[in-house]
Automatic annotation (TrEMBL):
It comes from Trifolium pratense. It comes from the Eukaryota. This is Uncharacterized protein.
Length: 745
């Protein structure tokens, strides 16, 4: 074993680890065998799910190597485990070892210092020697790598989540652990018992830190007992001394009047404005304010500009926190420039602030943000507060339901302060109302949005006599009333118009199909409120559309609250989208060859697959959100971008077919990964990115031949002729979007 360990040398080298895993292909435990680790670790994890099954706990194991730790946890009921390691070799080996016996376990090749997960994705992170390895390179501890890793751990942990670090507690490891988890984290240290027969004189310690949404400095709780310390005296005394010294530091910070913001790692950084700096912070909490807040501190990129404010606060309401302008770095810098502030503190409100007035919020925030202003600004009496309006004048909840698959769903009617010019011109009279479908699981994601118009219903028939006719004309609305109904001739979501604009890539083919008297066949995975298929059904008469939706509750909502109606050219299937494409897409699209039965209850039809002649699909659209927040993708689920599924899509498409994916991710690494996967399957890729939207629409052509750039204008004209609108100005938005489509190299 000593010879094997010699192959490592630098513990941060991927090549060295690949060599190690090649030699040591069986599982290898550096320290803390499972029989000794089981009871303290399981007891700890049980505190995170006191009333839920262990399988509900999202666990991350970074630097997993070929340890059996994850396998033991899985067998103990913790099946929602994601393992990462930067060695592709060991991840492949572990995946093969567990794919059948532990099918729910996830394995990903990933650098633990730069994780591709969404914020707050995991309830627990269990590190067995990962931090120790990062901090033990050949030439001395690498604090940069350690800092990067712990920053990622903080980011991916949910509030109330726990980071479990199994370590040998070397002094340099304790230094970074103690300093990085002082502000708003509870910490405890315990010893893992050693076997009496163990030849090692080094003991493993379990350092546990719990994430709080506060800025409180806690004392470290020591669970060490002399009986549990079986290690050498130097290791034990070093740990005891480190704990004592750190608690003295924390006591000093806690007793300071400037406790919350005088912490060493923030005080020096925020004292002066630093050009182009951006820091994310948690403000407030127990004992210092009513609420806690998520904030971003941004120092202007160009300090030579004349500033209206030296330091200002910009409050973002919950309803707008997910907009590109506020959640993306690029958008935030635009806000800084428009605010004319040298330092802007962006504060994001969430559900905990729902019942508080804006006056209460400002009063609560004022002493907190005062600690974040630069020293040269300290003479100013008051920091100005700015606010992004939520843009809504009126809101009325129409329907609320909880789905076993989607979670809490809200249907609401809203009136905006401002609406797009083209819709104002088309409907110039009165306030325009919109109906929205909201998924609460995804930070109150507005999944669909439709325009409502009034419709006169229930009017009595006129009598035959002229006298009755005259009386009827005078009381035209006798027995009638105005009803709000969804208008399917307009798309409120810009990414929907972006999807349709991509049809210009196959507009010549669509025109030829129409000229031959045939139909263009489309499959849309993800129904939502049914707005996209209904719009396409109305504006492109040559389309035969099949929509696929996994959640029957969503289908019911689309029918009852968004006027979704099926007919011979539009059908909906309640099914798994991936399975539908693999098994039914070609046959289901061949409507002229299929058997169908009419449902007497709602007039919808169901297609039977038997005796159906396979017909290729011309357009496949993926427009589904992801329920896995740890994937880094808000839309779609990663399974829809798996190479095998992409190959299936290509096979199901007609020779001139078009594949469309609505992609939503905050991670550039994830976007690059998606592009790489699609390039492996499709030769010609295009993309559309709206400036004001987080959605990216990716288009892929099956054909080896492709539309040339100089033909785009002609292709756009052909698409324009295929579109049929009651209000032509609405269609212009689609045509304008075609100009933003870019070819991906």
């Amino acid at each position: 074993m000593g010879d094997i360990l010699e192959t490592l040398g630098d513990f941060t080298s991927k090549e060295n680890w690949d060599n190690f895993f090649t030699i040591c292909s069986d599982s290898f435990e550096w320290y803390a065998e499972w029989p000794n680790l089981r009871d303290p670790l399981i007891s700890l994890l049980q505190t995170l799910t006191p009333s839920s099954p262990p399988s509900s706990l999202q666990l991350l194991v970074p630097g997993c190597g070929n340890s059996r730790l994850s396998e033991h946890l899985y067998d103990a009921g913790y099946t929602s485990i994601t393992n990462i390691d930067f060695s592709k070799l060991v991840i492949s080996d572990m995946l093969r070892r567990n794919i059948r016996s532990r099918p729910l376990m996830r394995w990903r090749v990933m650098d633990m210092t730069s994780m591709q997960f969404e914020d707050e994705a995991f309830a627990a992170v269990v590190d067995k020697g990962g931090l120790d390895a990062l901090m033990e390179p050949k030439l001395g501890p690498d604090f940069d790598l350690g800092n990067q890793y712990l920053l990622e751990v903080k980011r991916v942990l949910k509030p109330g989540g726990k980071f479990v670090c199994l370590t040998l507690a070397e002094s340099y490891v304790l230094d970074i652990l103690f300093s990085k988890f002082r502000l708003g984290w509870k910490m405890s240290v315990d010893a893992i018992p050693l076997n009496s027969s163990s030849e090692s004189n080094h003991q493993t310690f379990m350092v546990v830190v719990e994430k709080e949404l506060s800025t409180t400095v806690h004392q470290i709780t020591s669970l060490l007992r002399n009986a549990s310390l079986n290690c050498n005296s130097k290791q034990a005394s070093g740990l005891q001394d480190a704990l004592q010294n750190e608690n003295q530091v924390r006591e000093k910070l806690s007793s300071s009047s400037d406790t919350l913001y005088a912490v060493e790692d923030l005080q020096e950084e925020l004292a002066k404005i630093s050009q182009g700096r951006r820091l994310q912070l948690t403000l407030g909490g127990q004992g210092c304010s009513i609420f806690s807040y998520r904030a971003v501190v941004l120092d202007a990129e160009e300090l030579s500009d004349p500033f209206t404010y030296h330091c200002g606060v910009f409050i973002v309401p919950k309803i707008r926190a997910c907009e590109w302008l506020f959640f993306s770095e690029e958008g935030q810098w635009m806000v800084v420039r428009s605010s004319k502030a040298a330092r802007l503190i962006m504060v994001f409100l969430d559900t905990s602030h729902t019942n508080a007035s804006m006056d209460e919020i400002q009063k609560d925030l004022s002493p907190l943000v005062k600690q974040l202003e630069p020293k040269e600004n300290s003479n100013e009496a008051q920091i100005p507060f700015l606010m992004a309006s939520d843009g809504i004048k009126k809101r009325n909840i129409v329907h609320q339901i909880t789905s076993p698959l989607t979670g809490s769903i809200i249907v609401e009617d809203v009136v905006y302060e401002n609406v797009d010019e083209e819709i104002s011109c088309a409907f110039p009279s009165g306030e325009l109302m919109f109906r929205r479908l909201v998924f609460e699981r995804a930070a109150n994601l507005v999944q669909s949005e439709a325009l409502l118009t009034t419709k006169l219903v229930g009017e009595k028939k006129n009598n035959s006599s002229s006298k009755s006719k005259k009386r009827g004309s005078q009381r035209r609305n006798d027995g009638a009333y105005n009803q709000m109904t969804v208008y399917h001739g307009y798309l409120a979501s810009s990414y929907h118009t972006g999807i349709i604009s991509g049809f210009t890539l196959i507009s010549s083919y669509m025109k030829n199909v129409a000229s031959s008297g045939k139909m263009v066949k489309a499959v849309i995975i993800g129904l939502g409120a049914g707005l996209l298929p209904m719009f396409l059904h109305g504006c492109i008469p040559i389309l035969e559309i099949e929509a696929v939706e996994l959640d029957p509750v969503i289908v019911d909502i689309a029918r009852e609250h968004f006027s979704f109606v099926e007919d011979k050219r539009l059908k909906v299937h309640i099914a798994d989208g991936i399975q539908f494409v693999r098994e039914n897409a070609s046959s289901g699209a061949a409507q002229s060859h299929s058997k169908s039965s009419e449902s007497p209850s709602n007039g919808s039809s169901t297609t039977h697959a038997e005796d159906v002649k396979a017909t290729k699909v011309d357009i496949i659209i993926i427009d589904v959100d992801s329920s896995d927040s740890s994937s880094g993708l808000a839309c779609p689920a990663l399974d829809f971008l798996d190479e095998s599924f992409l190959e299936t899509v290509k096979d199901k498409l007609s020779e001139q077919g078009l594949f469309v994916v609505n992609l939503v991710s905050r991670s550039q690494a994830i976007k690059d990964m998606v592009l790489l996967r699609m390039k492996k399957v499709f030769s010609h890729l295009f993309c559309l990115q709206h400036d004001e939207d987080v959605n990216e629409i990716h288009f892929a052509l099956k054909s080896e031949s492709c539309i040339e750039d100089h033909c785009f204008s002609e292709a756009t004209l052909k698409l324009d002729k295929l579109l049929k609108f009651d209000h032509p100005e609405i269609g212009q938005k689609i045509i304008n979007a075609t100009k933003k489509i870019k070819r991906l190299k």
